Amino acid sequence: MNNPFENTPPSAPADPFASPFAVDTAPRSEALVFSGRGGEYFGIWIVNLLLTVLTLGIYSAWAKVRRLQYFHRHTTLGGAAFDYHGDPRAILKGRVIGFLLLLGYNISFEVSPLLGMLVLGLLAAVMPLLLMRSLRFRALNTSWRGLRFGFDGDPKGAYRAFLMWPLLSLFTLYLLAPMWHQRMKRYQLDNARFGATRFRFTAPVSAFYRMYGVLLLLLLLGMAVIGGMVLLMIEAVEGRRELAVLVPMAVLAGWVALFLLIQPYLTARLQNLVWNSTRLGAHRFESHARARTLYAITLTNLIAIVCTLGFFAPFAAIRTARYRIESVTLVSAGPLDDFVAGQKQAVSATGEETADIFDVDIAL
Amino acid sequence: MSTSPSEPLTVAALYFDGHSARAWPATLSLDGDALLLAAEGLSRRAPLANLRLSEPMGAAPRLITFEDGAHAEVRDHAALARLLGATGQRDRLTVRSAFDLRMVAGALALLVVVLWGAARYGLQWAAEIAAPRVPEAVVAGLSRQTLELIDEHMLTPSRLSEDEQSRLRGVLADRTTLPHALVFRHGGEVGANAFALPDGTLVVTDELVALAGDDERVMAVLMHELGHVELRHGMRMLLQGSAVALFMTWYAGDVSSVIAMAPTALIQSGYSRDMEREADDYAAAALRAQGRSPALLADMLQRLSESAGRGRKNGAGWLDSHPDSAQRIERLRGRA
């Protein structure tokens, strides 16, 4: 009676048919389902924005946790939702450190170029470790069915993925950039785990070269189309000076439409490439996001955001998240009940927040 | 006032023990001040005070977490609401406000008021306090970079003779004790113009010297520019612009950095009217202290606006960043 917890040990033999998940042994597909709604998220977004402004940015750490919780909890796989557990105080600490680093970096170059180079060198030395810790923080604070994700990457791998490969790609005029990208993804996923079950990343370097190659061809094709249209337009407005102003406007619109293609194309292709070649234990994933659909979503989002002075942003975030999340399916090789927990670890948010403020988004 | 309903309230849930991914279909019910969880071959009881309940987020499941990390996932929101009603629990204000239409509308209105207030008053006040605290080395570095940028894109070397330049420098040195450096440039497209950099560098175009006709009028303009330096207007505008840029980058950051930059550029387009008036007052006081009339500056403003009227080629520049010239001319004449 003194013990408030009357636990029957879970090892007690349970009827296997009592659990809806215990019977599946054949491979089956579990689609990710996203149930977030724009109008609902708008409420969270506006309250977050107001409190962040009123507290001069301090609330942004709490806002981030609520935002991530909203998206995680609305993402369902196999009847259970994801959850986010980040501690806002840890995130705030990370943001302060990140802000100071950014300030120091900006001011040092104003004071003297030598000091600036010194600070830049220092940042280059610290950044890989911060990114490593950011990956660990994000993974350990994400859970599904009560089990935490985890990340066990070591500093050596972090320096290779986030310092050596970027420098190599820089020195080869970005010819090695696709290879750097593959190494980065491999570092992220090969070191990730769910509970005690490891992820495995199998995408070859050639797939990354193919992805960037197609992007390059698309851009060249787009430029040729814009060039052709300009020639046609110049001919059409010949002699009518009042229409001549339309030509530069059309060129600008063409460029904007073309360059807005890059991000959704890479997002969709990368998501497919990464998840189609990632294993979790014996399970695997399928992702079939279409670049053109994501492009249409991005373009309409952007127009709506501009027309509403930014107030469409929460709806846009929901639309994009729904498409990206619902493009992914887990193909399970056995019961999802069989995952077990790994060891629990405490982790600091400093890395993630610093990575955020330096605009290095390396999200999975 | 019945606290115990005749029918026991139960809520369906999925229970996860935190050690494996196994989902246990379970039912939750109240037992006095404790929550009772029952599943096939398992039951546990925990005081309500020791449980953590996640906030409601629309259709998303709510999570009831036990002290040891195990949790129950509830998707039957109506049943859970009845169960919570029986315990007299209430959600935090931030949570309720995010899902109540009136609260959201109120937050939106408050946000607009706060942003307007910050842009109108708060930003200026903060910049005024922060500007004198910016390290000298940073001010000098920024000014040097700005001049380099302007030399690269807008101005060409002055065509005034070296003698003429040093003569004007000598005249100015006699008129002020503030640290400054007077440099000359050929305006070209920019035309007659003068501006001050935060570290006290004063840039004057050949066209402005020609338009002034004599030293006194050049000095009157320079007194106005020195006013901007002394009152740290440049640094204040830069700080305000940076704060707006930081906010816009954070606000619109995930949309596009181009969109984030546009309003910043608009806001940074020049000194505020208040700053121009302050600099006029500074110049008027300085001119009177030198035994000269503030009308000299009014005269220069007149000439600049007339030359601007004749065509954009000459003189429009200085007035572009100096609005309300008619009002200012009148004001300065009043002080003469």
UniProtKB/TrEMBL annotation, chain A:
Keywords, ordered alphabetically: Membrane, Transmembrane, Transmembrane helix
The keyword Transferase appears for this protein: no
Keyword Transmembrane: yes
Pfam short name (any one): DUF898
Parts of the chain that traverse the membrane: 42-63, 90-108, 114-136, 157-177, 209-231, 243-266, 294-318
Organism field: Methyloversatilis universalis (strain ATCC BAA-1314 / DSM 25237 / JCM 13912 / CCUG 52030 / FAM5)
Protein name: Membrane protein
TrEMBL record, chain B:
Any one biological process term the GO annotation gives: proteolysis involved in protein catabolic process
Cofactor annotation comment: Binds 1 zinc ion per subunit.
InterPro entries: DUF7092, Mito/Outer_Membr_Metalloprot, Peptidase_M48
MF-aspect GO terms: metal ion binding; metalloendopeptidase activity
Cofactor(s) demanded: Zn(2+)
Biased composition (Basic and acidic residues): 321-336
Top-rank lineage group of the source organism: Bacteria
PANTHER family: METALLOENDOPEPTIDASE OMA1 (PTHR22726), METALLOENDOPEPTIDASE OMA1, MITOCHONDRIAL (PTHR22726:SF1)
Family assignment from sequence similarity: Belongs to the peptidase M48 family.
Record-given protein name: Transmembrane protein
